[in-house]
Amino acid sequence: MGKRVRLNAGDIFTFDLDDERVGAGQIIEPGMVFLITILEPAFPKGLELSKLDPSEILLTGWTTDALFFHDRWHVMGNLPIPASGIPRPCSKVRIGDEFWIQDYRATPVRKAAESELELLDFHTSRSPIAYQSALKAHHGLEKWHPDYEKLTKAYRAAQAALCSA
Protein backbone atom coordinates (compact mmCIF):
# COMPACT_ATOMS: atom_id res chain seq x y z
CA MET A 1 0.00 0.00 0.00
CA GLY A 2 1.21 3.50 -0.80
CA LYS A 3 1.78 6.37 1.54
CA ARG A 4 1.01 10.08 1.36
CA VAL A 5 4.07 12.30 1.17
CA ARG A 6 3.98 15.92 2.28
CA LEU A 7 5.41 17.91 -0.62
CA ASN A 8 6.79 21.42 -0.26
CA ALA A 9 7.74 24.15 -2.70
CA GLY A 10 11.37 23.61 -3.68
CA ASP A 11 11.44 19.86 -2.99
CA ILE A 12 13.76 18.04 -5.38
CA PHE A 13 12.72 14.53 -6.36
CA THR A 14 14.26 11.74 -8.39
CA PHE A 15 13.00 8.74 -10.32
CA ASP A 16 14.64 5.88 -12.20
CA LEU A 17 15.36 6.28 -15.90
CA ASP A 18 17.36 3.06 -16.34
CA ASP A 19 19.71 0.87 -14.27
CA GLU A 20 22.39 3.55 -13.96
CA ARG A 21 20.60 6.91 -14.26
CA VAL A 22 17.84 8.93 -12.64
CA GLY A 23 15.75 11.88 -13.68
CA ALA A 24 15.09 14.78 -11.31
CA GLY A 25 12.44 17.42 -10.86
CA GLN A 26 11.26 20.13 -8.51
CA ILE A 27 7.96 20.94 -6.82
CA ILE A 28 7.11 24.53 -7.76
CA GLU A 29 3.64 24.82 -6.22
CA PRO A 30 2.35 22.04 -3.96
CA GLY A 31 -1.33 21.21 -3.57
CA MET A 32 -3.85 18.54 -4.56
CA VAL A 33 -2.62 19.04 -8.12
CA PHE A 34 0.81 20.62 -8.18
CA LEU A 35 3.13 22.43 -10.55
CA ILE A 36 6.44 20.67 -11.25
CA THR A 37 9.50 21.00 -13.40
CA ILE A 38 11.52 18.09 -14.78
CA LEU A 39 15.20 18.76 -15.37
CA GLU A 40 16.82 18.00 -18.73
CA PRO A 41 19.91 16.01 -17.63
CA ALA A 42 19.98 12.31 -16.84
CA PHE A 43 21.98 11.96 -13.62
CA PRO A 44 23.99 8.99 -12.32
CA LYS A 45 22.34 7.09 -9.46
CA GLY A 46 23.59 8.32 -6.12
CA LEU A 47 23.17 11.92 -7.26
CA GLU A 48 24.12 14.58 -4.71
CA LEU A 49 21.72 17.48 -4.25
CA SER A 50 24.58 19.97 -4.68
CA LYS A 51 25.12 18.71 -8.27
CA LEU A 52 21.67 19.86 -9.40
CA ASP A 53 20.85 23.09 -11.18
CA PRO A 54 17.07 23.58 -10.88
CA SER A 55 17.11 26.01 -13.81
CA GLU A 56 17.95 23.23 -16.35
CA ILE A 57 14.25 22.72 -17.10
CA LEU A 58 13.03 20.52 -19.95
CA LEU A 59 9.40 19.84 -18.93
CA THR A 60 6.87 21.62 -16.75
CA GLY A 61 3.19 21.38 -15.86
CA TRP A 62 0.54 20.24 -13.43
CA THR A 63 0.41 16.69 -12.05
CA THR A 64 -0.55 14.57 -9.03
CA ASP A 65 1.30 12.70 -6.29
CA ALA A 66 0.58 9.21 -7.66
CA LEU A 67 4.22 8.19 -8.15
CA PHE A 68 5.22 9.61 -4.76
CA PHE A 69 2.34 7.66 -3.21
CA HIS A 70 3.52 4.45 -4.91
CA ASP A 71 7.14 5.08 -3.89
CA ARG A 72 8.47 5.55 -7.43
CA TRP A 73 9.37 9.24 -7.08
CA HIS A 74 11.49 10.13 -4.04
CA VAL A 75 12.13 13.50 -2.41
CA MET A 76 15.86 13.93 -1.83
CA GLY A 77 15.98 17.47 -0.43
CA ASN A 78 14.99 21.05 -1.10
CA LEU A 79 16.56 23.81 -3.20
CA PRO A 80 15.48 27.37 -3.96
CA ILE A 81 13.07 27.62 -6.89
CA PRO A 82 14.60 29.50 -9.83
CA ALA A 83 13.50 33.13 -9.76
CA SER A 84 12.76 33.11 -13.48
CA GLY A 85 12.48 30.69 -16.36
CA ILE A 86 9.42 28.74 -15.21
CA PRO A 87 6.60 29.44 -17.66
CA ARG A 88 3.17 29.95 -16.20
CA PRO A 89 0.86 29.63 -19.20
CA CYS A 90 -2.68 30.83 -19.34
CA SER A 91 -5.42 28.71 -20.85
CA LYS A 92 -8.99 28.94 -22.06
CA VAL A 93 -12.16 27.84 -20.31
CA ARG A 94 -15.81 27.89 -21.31
CA ILE A 95 -18.07 29.58 -18.77
CA GLY A 96 -21.69 29.39 -19.85
CA ASP A 97 -21.79 30.47 -23.50
CA GLU A 98 -18.52 32.40 -23.38
CA PHE A 99 -14.83 31.54 -23.49
CA TRP A 100 -12.56 33.11 -20.92
CA ILE A 101 -8.80 33.34 -20.43
CA GLN A 102 -7.64 31.93 -17.12
CA ASP A 103 -4.28 32.31 -15.43
CA TYR A 104 -1.98 29.35 -14.82
CA ARG A 105 -3.84 28.53 -11.59
CA ALA A 106 -7.08 28.26 -13.61
CA THR A 107 -8.59 31.48 -12.27
CA PRO A 108 -10.66 33.26 -14.97
CA VAL A 109 -9.24 36.74 -15.64
CA ARG A 110 -10.96 38.07 -18.78
CA LYS A 111 -13.08 37.17 -21.78
CA ALA A 112 -11.12 35.56 -24.61
CA ALA A 113 -10.71 37.18 -27.99
CA GLU A 114 -11.74 35.00 -30.94
CA SER A 115 -8.13 34.92 -32.18
CA GLU A 116 -6.93 33.47 -28.85
CA LEU A 117 -9.27 30.49 -28.93
CA GLU A 118 -7.37 28.72 -31.70
CA LEU A 119 -4.01 29.26 -30.02
CA LEU A 120 -4.68 28.45 -26.37
CA ASP A 121 -5.15 25.06 -24.74
CA PHE A 122 -7.64 24.18 -22.04
CA HIS A 123 -6.11 23.94 -18.54
CA THR A 124 -4.90 20.39 -17.99
CA SER A 125 -2.84 18.22 -15.72
CA ARG A 126 -0.98 15.10 -16.78
CA SER A 127 -0.15 11.93 -14.92
CA PRO A 128 3.35 11.83 -13.43
CA ILE A 129 4.23 8.87 -15.67
CA ALA A 130 3.73 11.11 -18.74
CA TYR A 131 6.52 13.42 -17.50
CA GLN A 132 8.74 10.46 -16.66
CA SER A 133 8.13 8.85 -20.06
CA ALA A 134 8.78 12.14 -21.87
CA LEU A 135 12.15 12.48 -20.14
CA LYS A 136 12.99 8.86 -21.00
CA ALA A 137 12.07 9.56 -24.62
CA HIS A 138 14.20 12.72 -24.62
CA HIS A 139 17.17 10.53 -23.64
CA GLY A 140 16.40 7.88 -26.27
CA LEU A 141 15.06 5.26 -23.84
CA GLU A 142 11.48 5.31 -25.20
CA LYS A 143 9.72 6.56 -28.29
CA TRP A 144 8.91 10.28 -28.36
CA HIS A 145 5.15 10.84 -28.66
CA PRO A 146 3.89 14.09 -30.21
CA ASP A 147 1.77 14.88 -27.13
CA TYR A 148 4.97 15.16 -25.05
CA GLU A 149 5.66 18.43 -26.87
CA LYS A 150 2.94 20.13 -24.80
CA LEU A 151 4.91 19.26 -21.65
CA THR A 152 8.05 21.07 -22.76
CA LYS A 153 9.24 24.33 -21.28
CA ALA A 154 9.36 25.82 -24.78
CA TYR A 155 5.71 24.99 -25.50
CA ARG A 156 4.57 26.27 -22.09
CA ALA A 157 6.58 29.48 -22.57
CA ALA A 158 4.87 30.06 -25.93
CA GLN A 159 1.46 29.60 -24.28
CA ALA A 160 2.44 32.01 -21.49
CA ALA A 161 3.56 34.61 -24.06
CA LEU A 162 0.10 34.60 -25.63
CA CYS A 163 -1.39 36.02 -22.45
CA SER A 164 1.28 38.56 -21.72
CA ALA A 165 0.95 40.17 -25.16
Which secondary structure elements does this structure contain, and how are they paired or packed?
Blueprint: E1 11-16, E2 21-29, E3 34-39, E4 43-44, E5 57-63, H1 66-69, E6 74-78, E7 91-95, E8 98-102, E9 108-111, H2 114-117, H3 128-138, H4 153-164
Antiparallel strand pairs: 1-2, 1-6, 2-3, 2-4, 3-5, 7-8, 8-9
Outline the structure in words:
The protein has 165 residues and is α+β, with helices and mostly antiparallel strands. The protein has one domain. It is 19% helix and 30% strand. It contains four helices and nine strands. Strands 1, 2, 3, 4, 5 and 6 form a six-stranded antiparallel β-sheet that branches. A three-stranded antiparallel β-sheet has the order 7-8-9, with no helix packed on it. A hairpin with a 2-residue loop joins strand 7 (91-95) and strand 8. The longest helix is centred in the C-terminal third of the chain and has 12 residues, at 153-164. The chain starts with 10 loop residues before the first strand and ends with a helix.
